[in-house]
Structures are given as structure tokens and as C-alpha cells.
Amino acid sequence: MTGNWGRWGVDDEAGALNLVTPEVTRRALGLVRSGRTLSLTQPLGPATPGPPHRNPPSRFMDRGAGDYVLGARTPGGFRFAEDTVQFATHSGTHLDALAHAWSGDELYNGHPQAGTRSTRGAARLGADKLVPVLTRGILVDAVAAAGGPLPPSAPVGVGDLERGIREAGVTVEPGDAVLVRTGWIESHGAAGDYFADEPGITEDAARWLAEHDVAVVGADNYAVEQQSATPGFPAHLVLLHQHGVPLLENVVLAELAGALADQGRSTFALLLAPIPLVGSTGSPVAPVAVL
Amino acid sequence: MTGNWGRWGVDDEAGALNLVTPEVTRRALGLVRSGRTLSLTQPLGPATPGPPHRNPPSRFMDRGAGDYVLGARTPGGFRFAEDTVQFATHSGTHLDALAHAWSGDELYNGHPQAGTRSTRGAARLGADKLVPVLTRGILVDAVAAAGGPLPPSAPVGVGDLERGIREAGVTVEPGDAVLVRTGWIESHGAAGDYFADEPGITEDAARWLAEHDVAVVGADNYAVEQQSATPGFPAHLVLLHQHGVPLLENVVLAELAGALADQGRSTFALLLAPIPLVGSTGSPVAPVAVL
Amino acid sequence: MTGNWGRWGVDDEAGALNLVTPEVTRRALGLVRSGRTLSLTQPLGPATPGPPHRNPPSRFMDRGAGDYVLGARTPGGFRFAEDTVQFATHSGTHLDALAHAWSGDELYNGHPQAGTRSTRGAARLGADKLVPVLTRGILVDAVAAAGGPLPPSAPVGVGDLERGIREAGVTVEPGDAVLVRTGWIESHGAAGDYFADEPGITEDAARWLAEHDVAVVGADNYAVEQQSATPGFPAHLVLLHQHGVPLLENVVLAELAGALADQGRSTFALLLAPIPLVGSTGSPVAPVAVL
Amino acid sequence: MTGNWGRWGVDDEAGALNLVTPEVTRRALGLVRSGRTLSLTQPLGPATPGPPHRNPPSRFMDRGAGDYVLGARTPGGFRFAEDTVQFATHSGTHLDALAHAWSGDELYNGHPQAGTRSTRGAARLGADKLVPVLTRGILVDAVAAAGGPLPPSAPVGVGDLERGIREAGVTVEPGDAVLVRTGWIESHGAAGDYFADEPGITEDAARWLAEHDVAVVGADNYAVEQQSATPGFPAHLVLLHQHGVPLLENVVLAELAGALADQGRSTFALLLAPIPLVGSTGSPVAPVAVL
């Protein structure tokens, strides 16, 4: 198997996140100018759009103000509200864990698929193995390049990445996070057709990113990669399965793109602090850009 | 009402997080030395300890490797696993949103309690109003001061805070996050009695922190504040209700304490990127210390 | 308050189900001819139609055959599958408990509404207070009377009930269950507009049924009563609130109507064995007609 | 394969419930004396006992009286409460569907185990295939025979069944339901050790029941069969897997036993109306005895 299998040892579960070393983090922090923090996340709740086969997130109030007006006790005057949430872990802005996608009998790094089953969740490569990372983010703004949101099924290929990164005045470094703005969330997010036919990266672009030791690849669409009549998710397999590169999906990028353009740059410090959901295949995350 | 009501406008919902300005963030980042990132979170899953009245988190595999060995299709060779999680939002390491606690008819900043009800969740001051913050963290290590984990119901008072911060060689600045290590998670986390009688900050200590414009207060216990025979949660009311200061609970601090001690310091860059759960009263969060 | 308040004592929570005495049950069983049992229920699962504001039911496999092909142990050769379900209790074929609907500050029989809150569920009049009943069912077939399914918002009024019951050759007896076939499930069940503008009983018809000491009223629609531009659910208030008569919704009646017509009758033994869900406002139920 | 495979056709999914013919139902109804109905179910809710590996049932109030006192609209004066429940389908009083247990690669009647997986639930033999039945119930009261509740791991063998049924003055007929009272729920139900080491039927007793064409076997314990150091659930395999006989668990029998003893009999009309949960492995059920 080509890719990163064995590169960080036979038991490795962190994959390309291993590339975000303390030195990489320091260099990323060196990009901070004003200290302004920008959230790149969708809110996560019952109104968060999702594909048809999946229930939207739920929230259940276990206790609210109503309990108190109806007579609940208030020891020391104290009133509190609490709630329970439920959601598919691939809802909203989230990171795919390495257990999320594979082909054949083995997950990334040869971990047996048998570890991913009902009674265990993902015993290996689950969301609890997603370490937090603070690294350099490179925004490849295909919307700016195209003059508007990309149409359905449009490819973002190697040339598009090379151009965008060259225009950023940088070269890709090991440990970078590359975020691609397709405009799909902006043009189709509210419509009912967001979860089909998205523009996104090609398989070749995925391979290019992996070969450049990118640690995370993300986009403002639901699956990062171009969706067309061709079945399957080849970029998922190149990135998650072969190279252990987590994917960041449903990222909100318009505001960041504007702020970076105002500053005449495309790179920024990016923090990803996923929730270590034990045995899950993905984690909600609120990515933070620090400008 | 004393406290911060009105300080950031009548409609403010961010509370003391307003104190974490870009300048505060820049200064916090100036503390970074090696760039090592340290997660301060518990894993969140079915084994996460919780109080008796609450179900533990659940994870349900919606698709796993078993589906494929039993014949599910693999378009383009693609196999994927996905899952759904469910948890009370105050499970594991989490931030209390400002909607979580109040007294009387109004939440922080005079928002009516009527906004917190079953059909809406928390219309105001919910977890979706918790902005990400990158600020300076100050560790007050009461375990080091006491020579071991604090016993049940032990107070961490104003004097303890002042001493710990003075020994850190700093003074509290607006926007700081103060994390108190009581040792409770270390000494009682695995036992069945974690969720009662914890050591923690006193009401006076809470007031001291609020008056010093601390933006976040956290601890390695379930409720930050000392628990004893006295009913209620007075520090919650001082911080969340009167001053709009979110509380960070069930933080894992032993490793951080050791790393900081090795470096002869008590301050560090701290990132909090909660998940913006719409209408929820709290959010899971993976706090990240950058050393 | 008119109606049945106080009729069975100040603490009564069973309402009109009290009318189904052992004698009523015996007489109902006297109607049995062949002993054929007919289920009047919709299947309950992820594909069960529901109104837009509500998630469909969920099913999560906690263990399946996949776990075994992936290596789970089989002590003594034993393999098992188990699952968890989740659903709004008013999904599919269900009985409204008496806690479900009211006006003013009191539920049926003067129980304070304060008993129905988040932390308790329905402390009084909940689904756990719905006793099983075996009684006589009377089918009022408005589809047969009209020559086809009723159109949207069509009323089934007192005259329609009187005619249908007269043609059944019976008079309403205390403890009867009256089931009205509107044809709504048959004509709109698969469409997206089932949950609006249904034909159903009028407020007057509800009052007529209550005054005739009917124990249960059901229909093959989502709310039993006619839905039109007029806001509210007056028949719910007459039946559930004033008279303690549970409502049976989303009943499947076409097959029963055909079988009864073949036998030249409209009455039959009906069993309702709801699940005693503690503190819930309704219960799924599989009504069984015994012919 | 011995047992009932093929007996009702290669596609049969109803198993021994096929034995409850209309004639069987008529004969069962002939046993009714007073018409008194008796529920044999535990309430199902957050307090329902369950084994350690399983969360207790949950109930979430989606709307309650609190919403109204806090200002929710009341069109036409109408107020309503609704809720969502969640539970493992083997919680409380329930019927095991035929998909619940098997050995080897095939379920009852040779249906491939591949039909029981995450994305489908139980495609065959699920709870939606459990037809309602009204049949004769025979109570085998091992508590009366022993003079008290059976001790842990005590066997109820062929001899015990034969004696109890002989003393009932009947012989087992095809389609009967046999309910065994062990006293386990009465002696250990409230304790923490209910879900281990129960007394129950032996494998031989299971075979005897199957060979006598019993349609349903139930008991007042969690798994019907004796539990001891021997691993596995052999009676489950004899009944569910080989003979297609559903199991009824956690039945409440003390009141029924007393009522039948008062009447000097052991047989009664029994109704089981499970909820047709699509693709589930079991269904909650409120069994009703009609005396």
C-alpha cells in the first residue's frame, strides 16, 4: 500500500496530524497579526441542513425555566437549565476521523476493519484519536479565482491548487491545512440540493495534497471532493485511507476569505480542537482562524 | 443588579468573553514557547463518568464494517462508517453557557428566563452564543500548594487564588482564563463519588475573579465551586448570572501542571473552541493549552 | 367544569376508560365470530410518516450479525442482535394520554398542569395511566357513506355518527370505542400533506360521543378531528380534557372495514394494550380487532 | 435443521405464532369468566431496571405546561404536551422477535444473518413481523409449587412443566402460551442483581414446550431460561432459532397467579399486541390476561 502506512509506526492512529509538530505550530502562530479570532463553523442544531437519509440533530431540554415557574425548588435561589443533544457525527462542520472511510479489509495503516463495529464503535482511528492541532492554514479561494461560486460538479484540480497556493506567495509545507473555498455552502447551503453534485477537489488534487504532506484538507461543501456521476469518493480514499489525512467538511469560509483578501494574504493560523468522541467516526469541530 | 449587566449593551449575550479582545489574544500568543499543544479534555463517550440522575453518553453505529462483510455495496471500492452520538451537554469536559444558571426571573444581562423552555431550548445565552476564545490561561495549582489533591468540600478561597497567582509572577488581566487544579478528578474521578462534595472555589473567590475581569473560570471538578452541606451553587450565580463568565468543568489538569512546573511558570496560551450547539445550555469543548 | 370531572373521584386518572367494566368486556367478546385477529396499526419505524416539526422514529442497532462475522464471541454458539429505538410518542398509531391536551391551568379532572413538566414528564394522566381495554368497537365508515375518502377538512358531524351507528343496528353503550373511517390515511397517507387539513369529527360530534359515554374515539387520520382554518383542537378539549376520553390516531381501517362489510356488521371486539410509558403524553399501540 | 424450519413455507417469518389460528383464539376466549382484564406489564420509563451494559429508557418532554406559563400561544385555548422516548427494545416487559437470537449463519427458517445489520435493522424476522395473538395462556406457577420464589439459577425442568400443567387440569395444545412464574421479579426485581443468575426453564424444558407446539413462552425474569455458569442461552436457541417461538420477558405474574388461584384454575385468555417496530429485534408489549 502506498501512502503513509507505516510511516509513523505500525500502531499509529494519528496519521498526518503527526506532521503538526511544535515547530509547525510556532511557525503558524508567527502569522498572527491582529489577534482577531474568526469562527469557521456552522451552528449545530435542529436546523442544521443534512442529507435526506439522516435525521437532523435533536435537542431535548431536560430542565428549563418552565420547571421553576411550575414549582421546582430553588435551593439558595439557584435555577438551572440543562439539555441533551443527539446528532450524527458527520453533521454540520466536522472532521472525518480516519476510521470513517476505507476500502478492502483494512483501514488506514493496516488496522483491521473488524475494529469498526456496532458494539465497539471504531476501536481504532476513531474521533478520540483526533488530536487538536494548531497549524498554518492556506485558503485556496476558487470562488475568487472563478469570479463566483463554482457550479455543480465543478472540479478543483491540481492546477487550481497550484495556482491558488502560488498566488498566496507560499509553498505547501508539511503539516499545513489546506482549505478550499468552492462557494457551495454560499450558493446551495439553504437550498435542498446541497447534498449532491457538489464542486470539489479531484482525486489528483487529493493526491497532490497528500504528497505535499498536508495534514488536513477542508472545504465549504459536504464531502470536500467533487461529486459527479462517477460513483464513490476517491479523494476520501486517497486522503483518509492511504495517507491518514482527516477531512474537514461544511466549513464556513466567506468571511475568512474576505478578511484575508483585505489583508492581502491567504495564510493564517488555524486551530482545530475536535471533541474526542470515543469510537466515533467523526467529530463536530469549531475551526478557529486567528488573524 | 450588580455585576456586568448592561456593560456590553442591553442585548449582549457574550458576557465576559467580550473581554478577550484581539489584543488579549496577541498577548496570550506571546506566551508560546515550544509550540507544544496539550489537550485538557476527557474523552467523551459511554464510559465518561456522570452524576446518577443522568444517562451516560451514547454512541450508535449507523454503519460499520459489518455491513460490508454482510454484503453492502462498495461503489468505487468505497466503504464508510458513520455514527450518531447523544449526550447531556454538561457531560465530560464542557463549558457552561450563560443560559445554564440564574436566579429570579432573569438570566444574565436581564434576558427573560421565558426564553429558556422546551420548545426553544435557550433562545438567548445558549451554547451557540459561546464565541471561541484564545486567551491567557493562569493555572492555580492548589494540589501543589497543598501537597496533594484537596479533600472533599475543601475551599479554594480568595487567599488561595491570590497566593497562586502571585507565585505565578503575574497579576490577573481582563480576559484571562483562570483554571484551578483541585486534584478532584485525579483522586475521585474513577470512583463513584466524584459527583458530590467536591473541593472548589468559594463564593468570595468567584466574586474576586469576576471583579478582576476574568473571562473564563475552570477547574478539574464537576462544578468548579466548593460543594458542602450548604445548598445551591453561589459561585455559579456570581460568575454565570451576575458577571456573564462561563464555567469550564471537568478539565484535565495534571499533565499541564507538570509541564508548566517543568518550565517554571503558571501561564500559557489557552484556546477554547466550543461547539455552537443551538439553544443548548452547555457545550463539550476540548480546551487546548499551547506551551 | 362540565364533563366527567369528579365522576370517578377527585384523584381519578383513568377517565372514560373506567367505563370499560368487566361486563362491557364480556359483552364485547360475545361479538367474536371466527376468532380472526386483525391488526389496525401502522408499522413504527424510520419510514413512518410524521409532521414536519418532528424527527421520524429512529432505530439504532446496538449489535447485529456484522459483529459476529467480525469476530464477536459466541458463547455456546449463541449470537444475538439488539437495538434501541427512539420516537415521539405521538408517532404512528397511538393513543393520546389524558395529559396530552388541556386548556387553562388544569388537566382533566382538575389535576394541575404543573405536574406536566420537563423534569417529571406527566406526573398525572400520563401514558402509564392508560389501562388496557377490551371493549366493543363500532366502526363508523364515512368512506362507505360518501362513496370514497373524504376530502380535506370535511366534517364528520353528529348526523354522520348517528346515521353510521343506526345503520350498524346498534346504539352506543357506555364503554364503547367508536372508530371513524375518513379515508385520510388511504388517500393522503403516502403524500406529503397528510399532516394538515384532515377531515374528521366536529366539536359537536365529539360532544355527542362524550355524552354517550364512549370510552375511546379513534380515526384513520392524525388528530381525529376535522382540521380547517379555525385554530385549535376543540374536539381534543371536549374529549381528552373535559371527559377524559383518550384519542386513538393514525388507525389503519380499510381492511377492517372490508371484513366487517363482508360480515354485514359494524361492531367487533377491540383490544387496546398501550405501553405504559411512564410520564409520557401518549403511547404507541397496536389495536387489535377480533372478528 | 430440526425444529420448525420450512413448516410454514420457506419465506415464513411468523414462526410459531402461525399456530394461533382463529379457532385457537375462539377457544381461548371461551375461557373468559368475569371479563376482568389484568395487565402483566412493568411500566416502561427511566426507572425501569436494566442490565449494566444498557442505558435505562429516556423520556424527553418536547413541550409541557412550562412552555405555556412562559408565554407559548394557545390557539383556541388549546394547550398540549408531547414527548420523545428512547429505549433499548429489550427493556421492561417485551417480546423477543425471531431476529433476536440465532447460531451459525442463519436465523430461524434459514433466513440469512446478513439481513440483520446496522443500516437495515433486522430485514427479516424483526419486531414488525410479530403478529398480535389472542390465545390460551397457561400459568405454570413454580413459586406456588416451591412455596416461595425460586433461588438463583434454579431450574424449571420438564417435570416441573408437566406437573404444573397436569395440575392445571389441561394438556398443552398447539398455539398455547406458557408463562412460568419463578418469583424472580418479585424477589430480585428491586435489587441490583436481577440481571444475573436467574432461575428459569432448562434447555430440555424449552424443547418440550417447542415439541408441544407452544406459540409463546414467557416468564417473570429477564431471559426466561435458567442462568448459571454454563455460557450461552440454549433455550433461546431451541425456541427462537429452531422453532420460531418468541419469548416474553420481564412479565409481572404475581397478581395473575393470585387471581387464578382464587378461581381454582391456571388457564386464561391472553392477548399480546406488540408494537410493530420495523427492523427491531424486540418489542415492548403490555400482555393482557382476560379472566
How would you explain this protein's 3D organization?
Four copies of one chain form a homotetramer. Chain A has two domains: 15-51 and 90-290, Glucose Oxidase, domain 1; 56-87, no CATH class. Chain A has helices spanning 22-29, 65-69, 142-146, 158-167, 184-188, 203-211, 234-243, 254-263, and strands spanning 37-39, 58-63, 79-80, 82-88, 94-96, 101-102, 116-117, 121-122, 133-141, 155-156, 177-181, 200-201, 216-219, 247-249, 267-272, 282-284, 288-290. Chain A is of the alpha/beta class. Chain A is built from eight helices and 17 strands. In chain A, the strands form four sheets. In chain A, strands 1-17-15-9-11-13-14-5-16 form a nine-stranded mixed sheet, sandwiched between helices. Chain A has a two-stranded antiparallel sheet with strand order 2-4. Chain A is globular and about 65 Å long. Chains in contact: A-B, A-C, A-D, B-C, B-D, C-D.
What's the structural blueprint in terms of helices and strands?
Four copies of one chain form a homotetramer.
Chain A: H1 22-29, E1 37-39, E2 58-63, H2 65-69, E3 79-80, E4 82-88, E5 94-96, E6 101-102, E7 116-117, E8 121-122, E9 133-141, H3 142-146, E10 155-156, H4 158-167, E11 177-181, H5 184-188, E12 200-201, H6 203-211, E13 216-219, H7 234-243, E14 247-249, H8 254-263, E15 267-272, E16 282-284, E17 288-290
Parallel strand pairs in A: 9-11, 10-12, 11-13, 13-14
Antiparallel strand pairs in A: 1-17, 2-4, 5-14, 5-16, 7-8, 9-15, 15-17
Helix pairs in contact in A: 6-7
GO molecular function, one term (chains A, B, C, D): arylformamidase activity
InterPro entries (chains A, B, C, D): KFase/CYL, KFase_sf
Biased composition (Pro residues) (chains A, B, C, D): 46-55
